[in-house]
Design a protein that fits this description.
The complex is a heterodimer. Chain A is an all-alpha fold. Chain A is 71% helix and 0% strand. Chain B has two domains: 75 residues, Rna Polymerase Sigma Factor, Chain: A (Orthogonal Bundle); 62 residues, Orthogonal Bundle (Arc Repressor Mutant, subunit A), CATH 1.10.10.10. The chains are: A mainly alpha, B mainly alpha. At the A-B interface, helix 1 and helix 2 of A face helix 1, helix 2, helix 5, helix 6 and helix 8 of B.
Chain lengths: 52, 188
C-alpha cells in the first residue's frame, strides 16, 4: 500500500516535511568542520607515494 | 609540470564534508563516522584506477563508504547507537512552533531506523541523488530504492505518530482506516 505513496496527494505534504527534516539533518552534518586528521591522512598518502 | 595528467585524487578534499555527513547519517555516531571516512579515503586512494574519470566521484566515494560500513556492520552484527542522544541533542536546538515536525522527535525516530532505511532516505531525500544514482550506489534495482524509501518514510511517520491525523490514507493504521471509513475524513 505504501507503494502508492508517491501517487497520493494527501501524503505529499508529509513527505516534503520529512524530506525537509532529512535535508536539515544532512546539512547540519555537512556544515561541521572536517577534522584535520583527514587532511593529514591525504598528505601522508601522497608523501608515501612520491617516496616510492 | 605541464602535461601532467590530472590526478582525480586531487578532488578528494572537496568531497570530505559530504562523505562525513553521509557517514554520520549512517552511523549516527561521529567517531564511528570518522573511522569510516578514514577507511574510505585509504580505499579510494589505493583504488583510484578503478574510478572512471568523468563519472560522479562523490557517488563513487559514497559507494565505497557504504560498502565498507555494511561489511563492518555485518561482522559486528550490532547497532552502534547514541545512547545518550548526544548527537541528537546537539543537532536539535530549534523547536518547531509552526506545526512542522519537531527536530528532536524527528532525530529520535531517525536514529531508530535501520541503517538501510537511513541510507536510502539520506541518499534520495537529503543529498540530492536520483533514484537511479542511489540504485547504483546501493547495488539494487530502482524499484527497490523507491519501495525502500517509501517504507522508511512510513516507518518514520509511524514512530512520529503522524499516521493518524496528518496521513489518513496511509494504510499503516487499521484504526485510522476505520475512522476514515466512518467519517470519510479526507485531507484537503
Amino acid at each position: 500500500m505504501w507503494a502508492d505513496m508517491d501517487h497520493n496527494e494527501d501524503t505529499s505534504g508529509l513527505k516534503s516535511q520529512i524530506d525537509e527534516n532529512l535535508k536539515r539533518v544532512y546539512r547540519e552534518a555537512l556544515e561541521e568542520d572536517v577534522p584535520d586528521r583527514f587532511k593529514d591522512l591525504l598528505e601522508q598518502l601522497r608523501k608515501k607515494e612520491s617516496g616510492k | 609540470m605541464t602535461g601532467t595528467p590530472v590526478d582525480p585524487r586531487d578532488e578528494l578534499p572537496d568531497h570530505l564534508p559530504a562523505l562525513r555527513a553521509f557517514a554520520i547519517s549512517l552511523t549516527r555516531d561521529v567517531s564511528a563516522a570518522d573511522d569510516l571516512v578514514q577507511d574510505t579515503i585509504v580505499k579510494a586512494w589505493s583504488n583510484i584506477e578503478k574510478f572512471e574519470v568523468g563519472t560522479n566521484m562523490r557517488a563513487w566515494l559514497f559507494t565505497i563508504l557504504r560498502n565498507t560500513y555494511y561489511s563492518l556492520h555485518r561482522k559486528r552484527r550490532r547497532e552502534v547507537p547514541d545512547p545518550d542522544g548526544a548527537h541528537a541533542a546537539r543537532l536539535s536546538e530549534k523547536p518547531a512552533h509552526d506545526g512542522r515536525l519537531a527536530m528532536t522527535d524527528f532525530l529520535k525516530a531517525f536514529d531508530q531506523l535501520s541503517p538501510e532505511h537511513r541510507e536510502v532516505l539520506i541518499l534520495v531525500g537529503a543529498s540530492g541523488f536520483s533514484y537511479d544514482e542511489a540504485a547504483g550506489m546501493m547495488g539494487v534495482a530502482v524499484g527497490t530504492v523507491k519501495s525502500r524509501a517509501n517504507r522508511a518514510r512510513a516507518k518514520l511517520c509511524d514512530m512520529l505518530g503522524l499516521a493518524e491525523g496528518e496521513n489518513p490514507v496511509s494504510g499503516a493504521d487499521a484504526a485510522t482506516l476505520a475512522v476514515m471509513g466512518r467519517n470519510g475524513v479526507q485531507a484537503a
